[in-house]
Amino acid sequence: MVTGELKSQVDKIWESFWTGGIANPLTVIEQFTFLLFLRRLDERQTLEEKKANMIGNSVKKPLYDEAHQRFRWHSFKNNDPETMFALFTQPQVDVDNLTVFEHMKNLGEGAGVFAKYMKGATFMIPTPKLLDQVVQMIDKIQMDDRDTKGDLYEYLLSKIATAGRNGQFRTPRHIIKMMVEMMQPTQEDTICDPACGTAGFLVAAGEYVHDHHSDWFHEPTFNEHFNRDMFTGIEFDSTMLRIGAMNLQLHGIDHPQLIGRDALSEANADSREQFSLILANPPFKGSLDYDSVESSLLKTVKTKKTELLFLGLILRMLKVGGRCAVIIPDGVLFGSSNAHKQLRQTLVEKQKLEAVISMPSGVFKPYAGVSTAILVFTKTNNGGTDKVWFYDMQADGFSLDDKRSPIKDNNIPDIIERFKQRGDVQSGEQNRSRTDQSFLVPFDEIKANDWDLSINRYKEIVYEQVDYAPPAQIIAAIEQLDAERSQALQMLKELLG
Question: Can you give the pTM of this predicted structure?
Fold first, then answer.
């Protein structure tokens, strides 16, 4: 839970960056992240030092040896602004010509997954004054537990207000949580997001496990699995990769598998049948270098549309029996191209399509007004689709304009509940009519409709008859209003003399 105090502290830091000359939201977050990481490194070594002192030993493989003590957070934060800035920007001759920033970049994987992806990172805080302001404000933030750290970073990420060039935009966290809640990650799951961005889906899956299955962490084997093998993210943008790494670390996932490459490229050709659960909102309507797309993927789905290629990729990456919840643009549901039809047929006929959830177009505002849906399916390679569950989402708890203000109307709890009960005869879900908000459509009907998955193809709309007054009566009312208007205008003229 993000407290008002925490929001206020982050807002002040954000404002300081803005007034200090850094206006790009991603740059702000990245620089903020670097400083958070430096504080975290110092706290980590302080903890290790306390443990070592208790048993009379020294710290093995310290992050900061004796020569680099001035690079530690608790040391440089007490310097005057100019001295502190010099430590970040001027190589220190007596310590291998390193700066605080370069030393952090050189720590490597031993400092955690974030440090592993520091190649290409740049320190961009322009003045001693701004650096000092931000350091002092970050130092005051209480970050004693996983929840606080995670909440802080999630609130920071919520300030991203611009879409990327390739169709990327931040997936609302309540939509992510809904999808995770529907899929219910298991103890054995290996979870992947092939276009992970800031790692929102992976973080939410980890939080689901903490919230619903805290007892699993009593098992050492699961702890190892959770911290190393359970979560995999693929992302080609190095800035996003670093932000995602920090997001995962602050949520208690220390060593996730993060892969810095384009999931559609030849470099990802070996990623086959590796994962039991995929959660994703892959980019769509983005630019695509056709020649760089992995050749076997193009044979499966011959198209330049990234949303279709990613669906083909997901099918390849899933193990048999693996599940997927993925956000797609509405066009995937009814598009008339051969690629569209072929992919829909594959999902319905050769795999097990579970659900289609139609979302209102305002869900992704202010980034985009595109209409989207969520597909839920299981990879079988042998069919299995009996009935597909459709849900017409009308509200997600926020207004559907650019402001996205909280409102009372919210279908999400209902979606989760109905989805879980869709196969239960006694729940009533099996017997809902096509006029209801959710209903089931049999395989044969979808096939007969050329594999069309748009909800409007199957939903029945009940029109209410509206009785209007006779035209003569309406005209008489208009004439009466006109006479009253003329009378009022005449009275006004008389008053004005």
Answer: 0.84
